[in-house]
Amino acid sequence: MSPGRQGHCTFIADLIISAKVCSVVVLSLLPAVLQRTPIGASAFRLTERVIRPFHRSRSRQGAGRLSLYPDHLSRTALELTPVEPAVMADDMCVTEKGKEMVLCFCTGNANKLREVSFILGKTVTLTSADVDLPELQGDPADISVGKCRLAFNQLKQPVIVEDTSLCFNALGGLPGPYVKWFLKKLGHKDLPKLLAGFDDKSAYALCMFSYMDDTLEKPLLFEGRTNGVIVDARGDPNFGWDPIFQPHGFDQTYAEMTKELKNTISHRYRALEKLKTYLVQHKEEFLTAHAAKKVKSGE
Ligand SMILES: O=c1nc[nH]c2c1ncn2[C@H]1C[C@H](O)[C@@H](COP(=O)(O)OP(=O)(O)OP(=O)(O)O)O1
Ligand SMILES: [Mg+2]
């Protein structure tokens, strides 16, 4: 190749590399810039599919950080399902400043977070933290309490965690708390095949919430259970095993129900109703303990 042509090629190669570097920089900055503009939130969602890889690495770096509601949801939800911020914004708790019960829900699951916020409504001001907790093994109650201790030790503020099980009666309660791994390996469509050799298709969804704050010696447990049957997958496949669980008394699976209906009959709803009752009954205690702590720490 003549030296003149070689020079041209080098120049074109440099141009391509510069263009690539520029586009990486622009795409990395795009979310931050978009979120600060008036149409930021909606523009950001529109572009989230394009910038997903950049975001993923950012949200990993952010694991364990605390964040106030819709912002956290819009970040973690990228990994899971599209976000419905309008619902969340309506549901956010606005109470008299300094008198709200602030509770942090530790979870890595944006679907759970969305449901919990919906169900708790204005009972508390909900924050969330995607703390990287281990998937403990054992009895559902022990798993939930263990998770809660770990979360509280890290965050040192009132926390809730939950662990969800899907239990097949014909299998003595399995997969139970291990349903996450079964889902990962089989997918929700093949889960009903575990019951192929059994007439009994009955099952129950179990939710174990644990609550801990620094006035307690150990986490408190709130259990919710919804009975049903395992069916072939039907409905929106966005949330775990929802398409294969049909609660007793309904001809729809969880995945075919509106979120309003699921959130008034679900295992999660039943557990949270108990937690709500506890929180309402202990509100004054909670606020007093919290205020005393603030005075002590000079906040
Ligand atoms: O209402 C539900 N409807 C359908 N599927 C559900 C539901 N609730 C949890 N699930 C799935 C998520 C996970 O595959 C497994 C429970 O495992 P589980 O450890 O509790 O959840 P996770 O690890 O996703 O979130 P977290 O960070 O709160 O532990 O069942
Ligand atoms: Mg988990």
From TrEMBL:
Under SUPFAM superfamilies, the record lists: ITPase-like
Binding residues for ITP, per the UniProt record? 107-112, 147, 163-164, 239-242, 262, 267-268
Top EC class, one word: hydrolase
Q: Where in the cell is it found?
A: Cytoplasm
Q: Give the superkingdom in one word.
A: Eukaryota
Q: Which GO terms describe its cellular component?
A: cytoplasm
Its keywords, alphabetically, are: Cytoplasm, Hydrolase, Magnesium, Manganese, Metal-binding, Nucleotide metabolism, Nucleotide-binding
Q: Which residues bind Mg(2+)?
A: E135, D163
Give the NCBIfam families listed for this entry: RdgB/HAM1 family non-canonical purine NTP pyrophosphatase
Oligomer status and interactors:
Homodimer.
Give the family per the record.
Answer: Belongs to the HAM1 NTPase family.
Name this polypeptide is given? Inosine triphosphate pyrophosphatase
